[in-house]
Protein backbone atom coordinates (compact mmCIF):
# COMPACT_ATOMS: atom_id res chain seq x y z
CA UNK A 1 0.00 0.00 0.00
CA UNK A 2 2.87 2.45 0.82
CA UNK A 3 6.04 3.00 -1.19
CA UNK A 4 8.26 5.30 0.84
CA UNK A 5 8.66 8.61 2.61
CA UNK A 6 7.97 11.95 0.89
CA UNK A 7 8.77 14.43 3.67
CA UNK A 8 9.30 14.58 7.42
CA UNK A 9 8.43 17.67 9.46
CA UNK A 10 10.94 19.04 11.97
CA UNK A 11 9.47 21.61 14.34
CA UNK A 12 11.96 24.41 15.05
CA UNK A 13 12.02 27.59 17.12
CA UNK A 14 14.06 29.60 14.61
CA UNK A 15 13.82 28.86 10.87
CA UNK A 16 16.95 30.81 9.87
CA UNK A 17 19.08 29.15 12.57
CA UNK A 18 17.84 25.69 11.52
CA UNK A 19 18.42 26.43 7.82
CA UNK A 20 21.98 27.53 8.60
CA UNK A 21 22.69 24.36 10.58
CA UNK A 22 21.20 21.88 8.13
CA UNK A 23 22.70 23.55 5.05
CA UNK A 24 26.14 24.56 6.41
CA UNK A 25 26.77 21.65 8.77
CA UNK A 26 25.00 18.81 6.94
CA UNK A 27 25.17 20.13 3.37
CA UNK A 28 21.44 19.90 2.59
CA UNK A 29 19.99 21.96 -0.25
CA UNK A 30 17.38 24.53 0.84
CA UNK A 31 14.04 25.19 -0.90
CA UNK A 32 11.95 28.00 0.59
CA UNK A 33 8.21 27.38 0.58
CA UNK A 34 7.17 30.45 2.63
CA UNK A 35 8.22 32.24 5.83
CA UNK A 36 7.02 29.43 8.09
CA UNK A 37 8.01 26.34 6.07
CA UNK A 38 11.30 25.44 4.40
CA UNK A 39 12.29 22.18 2.72
CA UNK A 40 15.76 20.70 3.12
CA UNK A 41 16.36 18.26 0.30
CA UNK A 42 17.78 14.86 1.15
CA UNK A 43 17.76 12.77 -2.02
CA UNK A 44 14.11 12.40 -3.00
CA UNK A 45 12.90 13.18 0.54
CA UNK A 46 12.33 16.60 2.08
CA UNK A 47 13.01 17.44 5.69
CA UNK A 48 10.40 20.15 6.12
CA UNK A 49 11.12 22.76 8.77
CA UNK A 50 8.02 24.18 10.46
CA UNK A 51 8.26 27.17 12.76
CA UNK A 52 6.72 26.52 16.21
CA UNK A 53 4.43 29.54 16.01
CA UNK A 54 3.00 28.66 12.59
CA UNK A 55 -0.71 28.69 11.82
CA UNK A 56 -0.17 26.13 9.04
CA UNK A 57 -2.69 23.31 9.31
CA UNK A 58 -3.01 20.43 9.56
CA UNK A 59 -0.09 19.77 11.85
CA UNK A 60 0.89 17.36 14.61
CA UNK A 61 -1.20 17.48 17.77
CA UNK A 62 1.79 18.52 19.87
CA UNK A 63 4.56 19.93 17.63
CA UNK A 64 7.58 20.07 19.91
CA UNK A 65 11.08 21.27 19.04
CA UNK A 66 13.77 18.85 20.20
CA UNK A 67 11.59 15.72 20.16
CA UNK A 68 12.95 14.19 16.93
CA UNK A 69 15.43 11.31 16.78
CA UNK A 70 16.55 10.90 13.17
CA UNK A 71 19.16 8.65 11.54
CA UNK A 72 20.71 9.94 8.30
CA UNK A 73 22.93 7.95 5.94
CA UNK A 74 26.27 9.50 5.01
CA UNK A 75 27.92 9.30 1.60
CA UNK A 76 31.28 10.11 3.22
CA UNK A 77 33.31 7.97 5.60
CA UNK A 78 32.45 8.89 9.19
CA UNK A 79 36.06 9.97 9.84
CA UNK A 80 35.57 12.74 7.24
CA UNK A 81 32.21 13.67 8.73
CA UNK A 82 33.76 13.86 12.18
CA UNK A 83 36.61 16.11 10.94
CA UNK A 84 34.06 18.37 9.20
CA UNK A 85 31.98 18.67 12.38
CA UNK A 86 35.07 19.40 14.48
CA UNK A 87 36.18 22.11 12.02
CA UNK A 88 32.77 23.77 12.44
CA UNK A 89 32.83 23.44 16.22
CA UNK A 90 29.86 21.03 16.26
CA UNK A 91 30.05 18.62 19.18
CA UNK A 92 29.73 14.91 18.55
CA UNK A 93 27.73 13.59 21.48
CA UNK A 94 28.57 9.92 20.90
CA UNK A 95 30.46 7.83 18.41
CA UNK A 96 31.57 6.31 16.34
CA UNK A 97 29.53 3.38 17.67
CA UNK A 98 28.01 0.26 16.10
CA UNK A 99 24.23 0.18 15.83
CA UNK A 100 21.55 -1.77 13.98
CA UNK A 101 20.14 0.07 10.96
CA UNK A 102 17.17 -0.72 8.75
CA UNK A 103 19.19 -3.05 6.51
CA UNK A 104 21.98 -4.26 8.81
CA UNK A 105 24.79 -3.08 11.04
CA UNK A 106 25.88 0.55 10.81
CA UNK A 107 28.50 2.76 12.41
CA UNK A 108 27.09 6.03 13.76
CA UNK A 109 27.93 9.46 15.12
CA UNK A 110 25.38 11.34 17.24
CA UNK A 111 24.94 15.11 17.43
CA UNK A 112 22.18 17.61 18.10
CA UNK A 113 20.69 20.35 15.98
CA UNK A 114 20.11 23.84 17.47
CA UNK A 115 16.71 22.77 18.87
CA UNK A 116 18.12 19.67 20.57
CA UNK A 117 16.86 17.11 18.05
CA UNK A 118 19.07 14.01 18.09
CA UNK A 119 20.73 13.36 14.73
CA UNK A 120 22.50 10.11 14.00
CA UNK A 121 24.81 10.09 10.99
CA UNK A 122 25.52 6.55 9.84
CA UNK A 123 27.43 4.41 7.37
CA UNK A 124 26.93 0.68 6.71
CA UNK A 125 29.47 -1.63 8.29
CA UNK A 126 31.97 -3.00 5.83
CA UNK A 127 31.31 -6.67 4.98
Placed side by side, the strands forming the largest sheet appear as 1-4-3-2
Number of E-state strands: 8
- Low-confidence segments: none
**Overall mean pLDDT:** 94
Structural class: alpha/beta
Question: What is the overall number of helices?
Answer: 2
Strand content: 35-45%
Shape: globular
Task: Compute the CA-based radius of gyration.
Answer: 15 Å
How far apart the termini lie comes to 32 Å
InterPro entries: Glyas_Bleomycin-R_OHBP_Dase (IPR029068), Glyas_Fos-R_dOase_dom (IPR004360), GlyoxalaseI/FosfomycinResist (IPR050383), VOC_core (IPR037523)
Domain VOC: 4-124
Protein name: VOC family protein
In short:
The protein is α/β, with parallel strands linked by helices and 127 residues long. The chain contains two helices and eight strands. It is globular.
Features:
4-stranded mixed beta sheet; alpha/beta; 2 helices; 127 residues
Detail the topology: elements first, then pairings.
Blueprint: E1 7-12, H1 15-25, E2 29-34, E3 37-42, E4 45-51, E5 69-73, H2 78-87, E6 94-100, E7 105-112, E8 118-124
Parallel strand pairs: 1-4, 5-8
Antiparallel strand pairs: 2-3, 3-4, 6-7, 7-8
Amino acid sequence: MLSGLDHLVITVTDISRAVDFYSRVLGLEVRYRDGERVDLLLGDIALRLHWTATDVTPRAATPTPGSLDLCLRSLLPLEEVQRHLEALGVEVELGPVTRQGATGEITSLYLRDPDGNLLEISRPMKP
